[in-house]
Design goal:
Elements: H1 19-23, H2 34-52, E1 77-78, H3 80-92, H4 98-113, E2 129-131, E3 137-138, E4 151-152, H5 154-166, H6 175-191, E5 192-193, E6 198-199, E7 202-203, H7 218-232, H8 243-262, H9 309-321, E8 326-328, E9 334-337, H10 362-374, H11 378-398, H12 426-438
Parallel strand pairs: 4-7
Antiparallel strand pairs: 1-2, 2-3, 5-6, 8-9
Helix pairs in contact: 2-12, 3-4, 3-5, 3-12, 4-6, 5-6, 5-7, 6-8, 7-8, 10-11, 10-12
């Protein structure tokens, strides 16, 4: 698709309205039954996800509806990671425009990620995020160069490849989808150094933490393993012409699974020790290797069928250990999971540069519920989901959050930052939808 062409996209009639403005009236009829709040949140999520769709096919992170206030940050940026989850949530909701949004997203990938000077299958250097209104961008996330590249995030490629594969319609794969998958997966394969068994360049994880001493982020390795493997498994994709290329995706995907599954606890740790932000390596004491709630984003459905039982046991142990990162109010409601202990990022601009401490992320609690459900912990998954919905319901009723808007972060009661920061975050709404489906509320 060229710049002078336009792809028809569905634009919600509420695209310019904060969901809370046309949903506040629901407080009049909502009872204490959280299933009604869940339905109201699902309705608002449809609007938020639709509002994220841009005419050029991008799905922005937070298409804020009211620019007159300085209490929230506008996120007209395109992260492949966010877009992947948002697209799958649209399919989960059965939104009629989901296939058309997917086609627009594929076009965006092919237009932005590939340049005229790129050799077939070799992506041009692109960026961690792309501002769809101004064209501004920062930090590479695609293909390291021979020189020292900017930071890049391999999980961006992997998670979008996984999402495009999951939403691929039956039958032969269209050329645009294949080109996008080819670009995403080859970007990972081209960046892998088998000699050092690491991704080349200045690798970041999803939180922009930098890798050190050629180690592996748990989230990144599992995301890349599952994304490459899932893309290579698409029926009709491996034709005689592209079979060697697709086989290379599967080969690297399996190699990354082996690296993850080979990680062992330190001698002083129990055999079922949880997975941490970085995969353990002999000789490293891991003082700066915390529990990271982002690991739950890639557990459960990203494990391969032949995963050893001990790895599955440790994965479930990890989910239970992440419970210590929850923000829990006196009434028992859970606002979300902190990314890690000691996190300071709160998503709010502070002129003096001081960060008073992070809030908890509802989306991480929702992804935790999804993972628990997939591990058979049905009661725990449902309880966690309802705890977060209860917390949101309480914040709406007390007026500290706009009705049916799910922010990036929730803060303790009485914190003046409540209702500030990034909201509505489409990724938060996407994970709510997927969790509600997982525990049977949608």
């Amino acid at each position: 698709m060229h710049e002078h062409e336009t792809r028809p996209t569905y634009v919600s009639e509420h695209a310019g309205v904060m969901p809370g403005e046309h949903a506040q009236e629901q407080l009049r009829w909502l009872s204490d039954d959280l299933s009604e709040r869940t339905i109201a949140l699902a309705d608002a999520s449809v609007d938020v996800l639709r509002g994220a769709v841009q005419p050029n096919g991008a799905l922005v992170a937070a298409n804020r509806y009211d620019d007159s206030t300085e209490t929230a940050v506008d996120y007209h940026y395109m992260w492949l990671r966010d877009a992947a989850e948002n697209l799958q949530a649209m399919y989960a909701l059965g939104m009629p425009e989901a296939a058309n949004v997917r086609a627009g997203l594929v076009d965006w990938v092919n237009n932005v990620m590939l340049g005229d000077d790129a050799r077939p299958g070799e992506p041009k250097l692109s960026h961690k995020r792309h501002h769809v209104l101004t064209g501004a961008h920062d930090k590479a996330y695609y293909r390291p160069q021979a020189y020292s590249p900017p930071e890049w995030q391999p999980d961006n490629n992997a998670l979008l490849a996984h999402a495009l594969a999951n939403t691929c319609p039956p039958g032969p794969v269209d050329q645009a989808t294949f080109q996008a998958l080819r670009s995403l997966c080859n970007g990972l394969c081209n960046a892998w150094d088998e000699t050092t068994q690491t991704f080349m360049g200045n690798v970041e994880n999803q939180w922009e933490n930098h890798v050190v001493q050629q180690r592996h982020f748990t989230h990144t390795i599992l995301a890349a393993a599952s994304g490459l493997t899932r893309a290579a498994q698409i029926h009709h994709l491996s034709t005689p012409e592209n079979r060697p290329e697709v086989a290379s995706w599967m080969l690297l995907g399996q190699r990354l699974y082996e690296i993850f599954e080979a990680e062992q606890p330190h001698p002083h740790e129990p055999a079922d020790a949880p997975y941490l932000r970085l995969l353990r390596q002999p000789g490293h004491t891991d003082e700066n290797n915390p529990l990271d709630a982002g690991v739950n984003l890639v557990l459960a459905d990203r494990l391969r069928p032949e995963t050893p039982m001990q790895v599955r046991v440790r994965s479930l142990t990890t989910l239970h250990a992440l419970g210590e990162l929850t923000l829990q109010y006196d009434d028992g409601a859970v606002g979300g999971l902190y990314r890690n202990n000691g996190d300071t990022y709160d998503g709010i601009f502070h002129p003096d540069g001081h960060e008073p401490g992070a809030g908890a992320w509802p989306l991480l609690a929702f992804s935790q519920a999804i993972a628990l459900e997939q591990f058979g912990e049905h009661a725990e998954a449902k309880e966690l989901f309802l705890d977060v919905v209860q917390c949101l319901d309480d914040r709406y009723r007390e007026g500290t959050l706009p009705c049916n808007v799910i922010p990036e972060q929730i803060f303790p009661k009485g914190d003046e930052r409540q209702g500030r920061g990034v909201m509505p975050l489409a990724w938060s709404h996407a994970m709510f939808v997927r969790a509600a489906k997982a525990v049977g509320y949608l």
